[in-house]
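User: quick one
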Amino acid sequence: MATVNQELMQLVARTRAFLKSHIAWVAVVIFGVGLLVCIIVPVVLTGLSKTHGDTPKFTATCVLVDYTMWRPIQTRCKVSVPAEIKASIDVSQTLFSLNSGDVLPVNCSYQVTDGVITCQGPHVTCQIRGTLSIAFFDNAGNAVLDKILFNLGSLIPPLVTSVVQVFEPVGKNFTSNFNFTCAVTSSCDTYTMALYVDGNLHLTEEDALLCINTSMTEGGYNKSCVFKVDEDVIRQQRSMDISCALLQNNFLAKQEKFLLPMCSKRSSDCNCSAKTTSCDEICTKVGTCLKHDDISRYQNITTEDVVLKPICPVLCTPKWCRDKFNDDKTETLIPAILGAMCTNS
Ligand SMILES: *[C@@H]1O[C@H](CO)[C@@H](O)[C@H](O)[C@H]1NC(C)=O
Ligand SMILES: *[C@@H]1O[C@H](CO)[C@@H](O)[C@H](O)[C@H]1NC(C)=O
Ligand SMILES: *[C@@H]1O[C@H](CO)[C@@H](O)[C@H](O)[C@H]1NC(C)=O
Ligand SMILES: *[C@@H]1O[C@H](CO)[C@@H](O)[C@H](O)[C@H]1NC(C)=O
Ligand SMILES: *[C@@H]1O[C@H](CO)[C@@H](O)[C@H](O)[C@H]1NC(C)=O
Ligand SMILES: *[C@@H]1O[C@H](CO)[C@@H](O)[C@H](O)[C@H]1NC(C)=O
Ligand SMILES: *[C@@H]1O[C@H](CO)[C@@H](O)[C@H](O)[C@H]1NC(C)=O
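Assistant: Done. Structure below.
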């Protein structure tokens, strides 16, 4: 510390000597030198006396910690209090206001040792958006930190996608159809949903089997759309580049991929070395390996031969799945699904 001060004093002395010897042009750039002195002086004088005229101020760096639908809005400010200031912040007087108007209820706490003030406001709803300003006051009621502003932007709601495969009889054959469901909850803005395949618009809301939109009392709405996708699309898109998109004024606001279940998600009593030569063996293996999976993801197993002889009963057919050991490819054929189910085990 002492060395640093000494060096600084030498620097000031050298600067002074320099200024004396260059007095002629110094007069011309006096404003600049004034700035230079101002920069040097506080460093040298720290802790010695008051600065000239400038009243010391509180400063703060604030961040928005949480701004999520239905959760309390939270802020955190790191406050620095100049040593000269005797007044202290009274956080119970903190003012949270929205768009310079509405005053929001707020609870703040001040950890003086860390200089951190955390505040918790009301639960976020669609109405809590715009500009949030915070003001802190000292115990005499004077504003010490004012107009700390946050821009509460639009909350893009989470998108949830799911896939259900069904087998439908077409004449004597069975064909596979997929319900691709896309849902948003607590959306504040109006979006339209669409299904994209390989980066291109494939189905719009008008093409959907169903779109349900339910409004919430506190503003915003839930919405889900079901799109029917036929098996050819998936066969051509073995890597499943199929996603749900949220569009706002024709701009893509958010996108989420649809994913099939993983082939390797099998039950613990699955016997991977069991043979799969006959229909009965295939039915047994599919039945034991997949029986603990979510019922909606796979066909119910039956040995009843419904349609096709001598082909195995269609209800022994496992639903299509992702082969994560093969670049996440979609497996569509029974031997490939059975293989992927037991790979790397
Ligand atoms: C502030 O704290 C009080 C008492 O714990 C509580 O009733 C109130 O809901 C809180 N308000 C906010 C905005 O968190
Ligand atoms: C049933 O499948 C066979 C073999 O794939 C095909 O030749 C036939 O056209 C299909 N029939 C119908 C009605 O789709
Ligand atoms: C697919 O979606 C349609 C429309 O909502 C529905 O009627 C049908 O039952 C669904 N199929 C499955 C297997 O979930
Ligand atoms: C959903 O319903 C709300 C309220 O009826 C409406 O304002 C909004 O435009 C609808 N959104 C869509 C995408 O249909
Ligand atoms: C919206 O979705 C959420 C989450 O699924 C649910 O809790 C809420 O009840 C739904 N609201 C309406 C109005 O459907
Ligand atoms: C698994 O299948 C093989 C081949 O069919 C058989 O030898 C073995 O006993 C089976 N293991 C169990 C635990 O069932
Ligand atoms: C599958 O089988 C279970 C139990 O037997 C039954 O509860 C369920 O409704 C069946 N699901 C379908 C889609 O047939």
